[in-house]
Each structure stands twice: as structure tokens, then as C-alpha cells.
């Protein structure tokens, strides 16, 4: 298969994986907002913001770091051993992290003033443990350029979440949603293990290159610190709204945020198919790869401009098509989130390249500006403008991150031998 055909094939599988997640995600959002009142949705959103941070931080940078080392070993005899080593590290860190969370979560909830969620978080610990392991396989199949298995894991995760929530959920029982999510993640995890065994035969018998464990772990640390900030920045607005305003404000904002939250994943789908190949080059192919990078970046920008226009039309005229009348107030924060969609989509693509080129520390520094700006702007604007203030803070805070990623991605195509990387 030619290189161009492989790019197209893998990008199509990546788009299919994200499309499946999109469809099930928005179907679940539609079902829950139709079933819950705005205040109940706000309570669930505040709880899930905390749980989501705990789940996402469980990654600890291991999955992204593993992806880089697996990509480097893709054409070598050590591939099976590297995968086995990274999977072992993934399981070990997930279990250790969950034990730590079990001890620390009462203190965390007391600190943010949400002790009412303690019992529910404690009953969600199995989901926390499984989530990072399941996500590992998405990164693994991306690094191996076997995105049809990423599609399978995504389809099972989000499809089973929707089916099981519809089957189990009863009004006011958040635990049934947690149970549905846990079962869905477990099913997707099992599919990932099977896919790994089929893609890399003999993996369970392979010898692990233990000498590389230190390098993988230390590369994961800057990614981990960046991820903590990223995940907090993703959910801090919802948590702050619950504390500084009301469950109603939280529900309105969460409705708007969930409409746009998945849209930057379009660029992730393209990145999954393109960046693993673009990130590997020599002095003869560097400029060609850079040109292709910019052509794709231009196309993505054009796509997001169209998407932003569609969001504006939906916010102004289309709310009754999706939400109950109680949620129509979400139209204003939805309009304020439009810049976040464009900036998030563009920056995700350039950030992917930085990760693959070994610039995780650089991207961590970039995101530090976003974390600080997001928290300070939320603290300033939420008391004044509620949900609209939280939305505006998210959009403004992403400006420096996007600009710095774009600038540094341009220089990432320089070779180390040039002394400029």
C-alpha cells in the first residue's frame, strides 16, 4: 500500500471512530437532558466533573508516552516487548492510582465543598481503575496505525454507555449511570485486549525491555503534569459554577458545553491518521512533511470555520430541536463557546505533532498559561455573568495555548542535528 493510501485509510478509520463516539455521545446527551430537569442535570454535571477529572488524571501521561515509544519500535523486533512493557506499566499505575484516590477523595471533596458526592465517588472507583486501561488501547492502535481497532473500542465504549444508561437509568439515581459507564468501559477494555492479541501475535510471551521502563516513565511526567492542568481546566468551570452560582446555572452551562465539547475531536481524528506518519522524517523529507502538515492545518481551519457558523445558527434558531424549553437559556453560553471550538480544533492538531516529536515538556509549559488564565477568568467572570462568564473564560483562555502550539509546531520539523529543535 502506498504512503498516501495508508494516510487515507487510517484517517478514514479515525474519522469513523470519532463519528461513532459523536453519534452515541450526543444521543446520550439528548436522552439525559430530556429525562432530567435543569437542576438535576446541573447536579449530575457537577458530580461528573469531579469524577471525570479523577478518571482522566488516571492516565498519568503513561498512554501518550507509550504511544511515542511504540511508534519508534513499530518496525523493530522489540515491538511486542515494548507494548507488553507499556501495558504492564499502565495496569500497575492505574491500580496504584485508584488506591491513592480511595484514601484522598474525602479530603478532595471536603476541599471543594462537595462532600455530598462522597458515597457516589467511592462506588465509582472501579470505573476509575478501568478507564485508563481502556484508553491505553486507543493510543496503542493509533501508534500501530491499526485504527480499525480504535473504532471498535470507541464504538463499544460509547454505544454500550448509551444502551446501558437507557436500560438502567431511573430519575434521581446517578449510581445507575455510573454502573452503566463501568460496564461499558469494561466491555471496551476486553475488546482492546483481544485486538492487541490479534494485532501483535505472541505479545504475552515477549520479553519486556525493562531497561526502557525508566525512559518511558520519565517522558510521561511532563505529560502527566500537563494533563492534570488540562483536565482541571476542562472541568474547573463546572465545579466553580456549582460553588459560586446555582445548580441551574451549572445545568445551563453544562448543556451548552456538552454540545461543543466533542467538536475539537474532529481534528484529533485527522491527527490520529496523519501525525504518526508526519512526525517521522529525515533531512530529505522534512520540508515535504511540513508542507503536508500546513495543507491539512488549512483544511481543518476551514472546516472549523464552517462548524462555528453552524453552532451560531443552532444557538440562535435550533435549540428547540434538541432541548426542552427549560434549557433554552443555554443559547448565550453556547455562542460564547464558539471561539473555544475553533481554537481547540486547531491547537489539538499542532499539539499532537509536538507530542510525537518529543516536545511534551514544551506543550506542558504552553498549557500552563491556559490553566492560570482559565481559573482567574472564571473567578472573575462567573460571579458577574454566571454561565456566560464561564463560557467566555474558556474561549479567552485558549488563545495563548493555540498561538504557542502553532509557533512551536512549525519549528518541530527541524532536525536535532541542526541544533534548532
Topology:
Blueprint: H1 3-35, H2 38-57, H3 62-72, H4 79-112, H5 118-122, H6 125-143, H7 147-168, H8 174-199, H9 213-244, H10 247-260, H11 265-278, H12 286-322, H13 331-336, H14 338-356, H15 360-385, H16 387-411
Helix pairs in contact: 1-7, 1-11, 2-6, 2-9, 2-10, 3-4, 3-6, 3-9, 4-6, 4-9, 6-7, 6-8, 7-8, 9-10, 9-15, 9-16, 10-16, 11-12, 11-14, 12-14, 14-16, 15-16
Features:
mainly alpha; 16 helices; 0% strand; globular; disordered C terminus
Describe this structure in words.
The protein is mostly helical and about 425 residues long. It is built from 16 helices and no strands. Helix 14 (about 340-355) packs parallel to helix 16. The two termini are about 30 Å apart.
Low-confidence stretches: 416-421
Shape: globular
**Radius of gyration from CA coordinates:** 21 Å
Describe the main β-sheet briefly.
none
Number of strands: 0
Compute the number of helices: 16
End-to-end C-alpha gap:
32 Å
Helicity level: over 70%
- In what range is the share of β-strand residues? under 5%
Task: Offer a quick outline of the entry.
81% of the residues lie in helices and 0% in strands. With 421 residues, it is mainly alpha-helical. The protein starts with a helix and ends in a 10-residue tail after the last helix.
Amino acid at each position: 500500500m502506498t504512503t498516501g493510501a495508508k494516510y487515507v485509510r487510517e484517517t478514514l478509520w479515525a474519522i469513523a471512530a470519532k463519528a461513532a463516539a459523536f453519534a452515541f455521545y450526543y444521543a446520550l446527551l439528548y436522552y439525559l437532558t430530556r429525562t432530567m430537569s435543569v437542576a438535576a442535570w446541573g447536579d449530575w454535571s457537577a458530580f461528573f466533573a469531579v469524577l471525570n477529572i479523577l478518571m482522566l488524571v488516571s492516565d498519568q501521561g503513561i498512554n501518550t508516552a507509550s504511544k511515542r515509544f511504540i511508534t519508534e519500535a513499530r518496525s523493530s523486533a522489540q515491538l511486542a516487548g515494548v507494548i507488553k512493557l507499556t501495558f504492564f506499566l499502565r495496569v500497575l499505575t492505574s491500580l496504584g492510582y485508584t488506591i491513592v484516590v480511595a484514601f484522598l477523595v474525602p479530603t478532595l471533596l471536603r476541599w471543594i465543598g462537595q462532600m455530598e458526592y462522597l458515597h457516589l465517588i467511592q462506588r465509582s472507583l472501579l470505573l476509575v481503575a478501568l478507564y485508563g486501561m481502556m484508553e491505553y488501547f486507543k493510543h496503542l492502535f493509533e501508534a500501530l496505525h491499526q485504527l480499525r481497532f480504535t473504532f471498535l473500542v470507541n464504538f463499544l465504549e460509547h454505544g454500550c454507555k448509551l444502551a446501558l444508561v437507557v436500560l438502567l437509568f431511573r430519575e434521581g439515581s446517578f449510581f445507575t449511570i455510573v454502573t452503566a459507564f463501568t460496564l461499558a468501559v469494561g466491555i471496551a477494555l476486553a475488546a482492546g485486549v483481544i485486538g492487541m492479541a490479534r494485532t501483535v501475535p505472541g505479545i504475552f510471551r515477549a520479553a519486556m525491555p525493562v531497561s526502557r521502563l525508566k525512559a518511558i516513565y520519565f517522558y510521561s511526567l511532563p505529560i502527566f503534569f500537563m494533563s492534570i492542568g488540562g483536565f482541571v481546566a476542562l472541568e474547573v468551570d463546572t465545579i466553580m459554577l456549582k460553588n459560586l452560582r446555582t445548580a441551574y446555572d451549572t445545568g445551563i452551562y453544562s448543556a451548552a458545553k456538552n454540545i461543543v465539547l466533542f467538536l475539537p475531536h474532529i481534528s484529533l481524528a485527522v491527527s490520529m491518521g496523519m501525525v504518526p506518519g508526519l512526525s517521522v522524517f529525515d533531512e530529505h523529507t522534512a520540508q515535504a512533511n511540513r508542507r503536508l502538515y500546513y495543507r491539512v492545518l488549512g483544511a481543518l481551519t476551514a472546516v472549523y470555520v464552517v462548524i462555528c457558523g453552524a453552532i451560531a445558527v443552532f444557538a440562535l434558531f435550533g435549540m428547540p430541536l434538541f432541548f426542552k424549553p427549560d434549557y433554552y437559556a443555554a443559547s448565550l453560553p453556547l455562542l460564547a463557546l464558539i471561539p473555544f471550538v475553533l481554537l481547540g480544533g486547531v491547537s489539538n492538531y499542532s499539539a499532537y505533532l509536538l507530542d510525537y516529536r518529543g516536545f511534551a515538556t514544551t506543550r506542558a509549559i504552553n498549557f500552563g498559561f491556559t490553566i492560570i488564565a482559565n481559573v482567574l477568568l472564571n473567578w472573575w467572570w462567573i460571579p458577574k455573568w454566571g454561565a456566560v462568564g464561564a463560557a467566555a473564560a474558556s474561549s479567552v483562555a485558549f488563545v495563548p495555548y493555540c498561538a504557542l502550539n502553532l509557533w512551536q509546531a512549525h519549528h518541530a520539523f527541524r532536525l536535532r542535528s541542526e541544533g534548532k529543535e
